[in-house]
Design brief:
The protein is α+β, with helices and mostly antiparallel strands. Strands 1-2-3-5-4 form a five-stranded mixed β-barrel. The radius of gyration is 27 Å and the shape is rod-shaped. The chain starts with 6 loop residues before the first strand and ends with a helix. 13% of the residues are buried.
Length: 111
């Protein structure tokens, strides 16, 4: 028996404008578009695809119809921002390389 808060494995069976349907062992579920990502979701296909295996959290259970309300974003959060920091040359060495160029520019603009 599945209960609220459980983490399940499933497979995306269909994608519609308002969410993605998930098949689990004994239940069918829906990941509403608001539960796909913390980011703005314009196109669900940018985040999920039919046949994709997913881990989801159960938000609500309807035992009579064997249907689940699911969250993809609560289980698949990316922690922090992943970016690469560009490398800059800092210090006197980089200034030393620029000095001849600066002198030539100064001579061109002098009266």
């Amino acid at each position: 028996m599945v209960k609220k808060g459980d983490i399940l494995n499933g497979e995306i069976s269909n994608i519609v404008g308002y969410g993605a349907f998930v098949k689990t062992k004994d239940y069918d579920g829906l990941i509403h578009i608001s539960e796909i990502s913390d980011k703005f979701v314009r196109n669900i296909h940018d985040f999920l695809s039919i046949g994709q295996k997913v881990r989801v959290e159960v938000l609500d259970v309807d035992e009579n119809s064997k249907q689940l309300k699911l969250s993809f974003k609560s289980v698949n959060k990316t922690r922090g921002i992943k970016v690469s920091v560009p490398e800059y040359k800092i210090g006197f060495k980089s200034l030393e390389e620029k000095i001849p160029e600066m002198i030539n520019e100064f001579k061109k603009n002098s009266f």
